[in-house]
UniProtKB/TrEMBL annotation:
InterPro entries, per database record: Cu_polyphenol_OxRdtase (IPR003730), Cu_polyphenol_OxRdtase_sf (IPR038371), Cytotoxic_necrot_fac-like_cat (IPR011324)
Domain of life the protein comes from: Eukaryota
Organism of derivation: Odontophorus gujanensis (marbled wood quail)
Record's protein name: Purine nucleoside phosphorylase LACC1
Localization, UniProt: Cytoplasm; Endoplasmic reticulum; Nucleus; Peroxisome
Length: 438
């Protein structure tokens, strides 16, 4: 069932501008005939240039569309200078209404270009179908605008131009929810390492559970990769690293570790490097983003540790990789636990809680209940100390000075952090990142 219809009038032939209302009547009549449900929302896309660049044809098209809009319910005219700007505005409207099944009616010669825009600005959450825009000919028969013979493959240059247009539009958007904020640990020496933990402010993601500095995109979420890339660009600019030399963990909730410079595994929850200027990062939206730094051997690491990864020992697997690959002494390695769900909020089924209870009974609260509270941070500290990390070289929620705290509970602070536990499946993601300074 189509929930929304987009009518693309960008590059509409000049000969049709004077009969734009006729074009619209024909198109809407077709939509109504083909719709088995109440009329879908209709959005008309058209170009609106700045006043100094307007042409007579452009001036005549928009007023006619506005007049037509005033007579039709559930129809909205959306204008901007570029296709990227119009589509992104419409995407915001669709997301606000939670619409995902969309028909695009457009001239045939625009179809392949439109698919490129859609591939970049939308994710697999949305379903698109395409239909040719038709008008009434002199013989009162419908004809397609732009014949099949005019349909052209999109060149590499066209794709590059579209990507540039999208990027320029996203870069022009204001930051949401305040300025971009980075939490830093006093434990990691900033004369050797660049590091930090992100919060949810200062990006352009607008969907409530993803707003605003979401740093992960997937086929199950509505934030496309281009938006995440723009959020990362803004983070890199604020933090001072190169986003083109950035490597994020490919999460598997296990204990595999990637060694930068060697063959990359298909998935891994730890990553280590001794290369200067390479920024590595671990995601977290309840799971713990851990940062590792050895100021003696000048090596660093990052790990993603949820309850499964904690039990599988991903934190010590990352430490052991630094020891074996770079000759680090375990007593020199510093470890910082970033924002993550705290023992105040996090529950697991009894059978999983039993495994944490075996690490230390203090890792479990209300052990006799069906879903005890779990302290994955405490479990992580115990496993690190058991592996030889010095207690004073670990920074976590045991810090008493709140000005030094970076291990906030993500579920308790909706204004600062994303939380899968709190927000459900369409959740945003923050990261912990670290690199060795040049």
């Amino acid at each position: 069932m189509v929930e929304a219809v987009l009518i693309d009038l960008f590059n509409l032939p000049t000969s049709l501008h004077n009969d734009i209302q006729g074009v619209m009547y024909n198109t809407l009549e077709t939509i109504e005939k083909c719709s088995s449900t109440p009329a879908p929302f209709v959005y008309v896309m058209c170009c609106q240039m700045p006043g100094s660049e307007r042409k007579g044809d452009q001036d005549s098209l928009l007023p006619a569309l506005r007049e037509f809009q005033s007579t039709k319910k559930r129809l909205e005219v959306v204008c901007a200078q570029t296709t990227a700007a119009v589509l992104y505005t419409i995407k915001q409207i669709l997301d606000e209404k939670d619409l995902s099944i969309i028909k695009v009616i457009l001239p045939t010669l625009r179809k392949e270009l439109m698919k490129v825009y859609i591939d970049h600005l939308f994710t697999a959450v949305y379903q698109f179908e395409f239909e040719d825009l038709k008008v009434t000919s002199d013989c009162n028969n419908l004809k397609t605008i732009g014949s099949k013979s005019e349909e052209q493959a999109v060149s590499t240059q066209d794709v590059a131009l579209i990507q540039s247009e999208i990027q320029m539009h996203l870069e022009s958007l204001p930051s949401l929810k305040g300025e971009l904020t980075i939490l830093k640990s006093s434990l990691i020496p900033d004369d050797i390492f660049l590091h930090g933990f992100t919060t949810r402010t200062g990006g352009i993601s607008y969907i409530p559970t993803l707003s605003s500095c979401n740093l992960f995109s997937s086929s199950k979420r509505r934030d496309p990769q281009v938006v995440v890339k723009e959020n990362l660009r803004r983070l890199a600019n604020a933090a001072g690293f190169n986003p083109e030399n950035f490597h994020r963990i490919k999460t598997d909730h296990a204990n595999a570790v990637c060694i930068m410079g060697k063959t990359e595994p298909d998935s891994y929850d730890g990553i280590v490097t001794n290369q200067k200027g390479v920024t590595i990062a671990a995601p977290g939206a309840d799971c713990i983003p851990l940062l590792f730094a050895d100021p003696v051997r000048k090596a660093c690491g990052a790990a993603h540790s949820g309850w499964k990864g904690t039990l599988l020992g991903v934190s010590m697997a990352t430490v052991n990789a630094m020891v074996s690959e770079y000759g680090c002494n375990v007593k020199d390695i510093l470890v910082v636990l970033g924002p993550s769900v705290g023992p105040c909020c996090y529950k697991l089924p009894r059978e999983s809680a039993e495994e944490f209870h075996r690490i230390d009974p203090k890792c479990v609260r209300q052990f006799d209940s069906a879903a005890p509270y779990i302290d994955i941070r405490r479990a992580t500290r115990i496993l690190l100390e058991s592996g030889g990390i010095l207690p004073e070289n670990i920074q976590d929620d045991s810090v008493t000075d709140q000005n030094q705290n970076v291990t906030f509970c993500t579920a308790c602070h909706p204004d600062k952090f994303y939380s899968h536990f709190r927000d459900g499946t369409n959740f945003g993601t923050q990261i912990g990142f670290i690199s060795i300074k040049d």
